Amino acid sequence: MLGSRVERLLINGSRLSPLHYAALSGNKELISLLLEAQAAVDIKDHKGMRPLHYAAWQGKTEPMKMLLKAGSSVNGQSDEGQIPLHLSAQHGHYDGSEMLLQHQSNPCISDSAGKTPLDLACEFGRVGVVQLLLSSNMCAAMLEPKPSDPNGVSPLHLAAKNGHIDVIRLLIQAGIDINRQSESGTALHQAALCGKTEVVRLLLDVRVRNTLCQTALDIVNQFTTTQASREIKQLLRDASAAMQVRALKDYCNNYDLTSLNIKAGDIITVYRPTNSPSYMTV
Question: Can you say where the ANK repeats lie in this chain (predicted)?
Fold first, then answer.
């Protein structure tokens, strides 16, 4: 049979079958011909990649549909632990990712680097795919810490590191814990470390400290005075010069109509003068 002769054909030194090449190029006629000739739909190449991996990588939805209909494993992992959804999500293929999810692809599967499809979509700023994944019924599970990842890196850390503001907003709206700690600290620490000024503005909360008891400002102060680091340092200083307190009792000055009227329980923002060690003005 044709399938038995071609399935392990070596081409240009790579262990790719004709079905791999057909999936990679999106040649529907050739895919149909090979499948009719009983080519193995889930044959692996030298990296454990199946034809469906290649079709998903290229965002070829019609070839993907043909391979899935022929019985390709939607959650089959490569040697690096990636399922087709990893590749589709990383490269921002919305339609392909949607098709895989409709065929019960599991977005919570981690690859050998500990990353899920959502992690990769966030890392590479694939806003549409991030929105798609977060709208799935697996959203809550994807946002939970992964037991398989001892470093504690979340999708928010990856988006913050690379400055993907729109992705960060989606994650926050979805309810991700912005204070989750990795070895480097929170997403704010990561953004400060990488000089992502706009991300720092969005995540600013200098009272969150990493495992070394460093604030985001402590981390930024370790690095050279680039324009980005200067702006971030000023943002962090400004934020650290303010704190919120709760009034313990009512206060009213009847002799000064411009003074504050405060009731017990009110939240007050207290500002510290730039060169003062204590909080003095309200």
Answer: 14-46, 47-79, 80-112, 113-137, 151-183, 183-205
Phi, psi of 185 (to 5 degrees): 115, -150
Within 8 A by CB and 6+ apart from 275, the residues are: none
Count of helix runs (H) and strand runs (E) in the chain: 16, 2
Looking at residue 241, what DSSP letter applies?
A: T
With b for 16 or more beta-carbon neighbours within 10 A and e for fewer, the 220-234 pattern comes to beeeeeeebbebbbe
Residuewise pLDDT in 10s, the chain (282 residues): 334 444 444 344 457 899 999 999 999 999 999 999 999 999 999 999 999 999 999 999 999 999 999 999 999 999 999 999 999 999 999 999 999 999 999 999 999 999 999 999 999 999 999 999 999 989 888 998 877 666 789 999 999 999 999 999 999 889 888 888 888 888 988 888 888 888 888 887 433 444 445 555 555 555 555 555 566 556 655 555 554 445 556 656 565 555 456 666 665 454 444 444 433 333
